[in-house]
Please model this.
Amino acid sequence: MVAVEDNNPTEIISVMRGYGVHAEVVLRRRAKNEALCVIKMRHQE
Model:
């Protein structure tokens, strides 16, 4: 998932963990006027 830093990626990760999904930020980049991050998600086993 690609998220804008303004959307608070750590909160997205916390919410997804509540649904049994392991999530982590794997990449952060700046694109012109936006700070972006890539969040990797997978079902916990």
Observations:
- The chain has a mean pLDDT of 95.
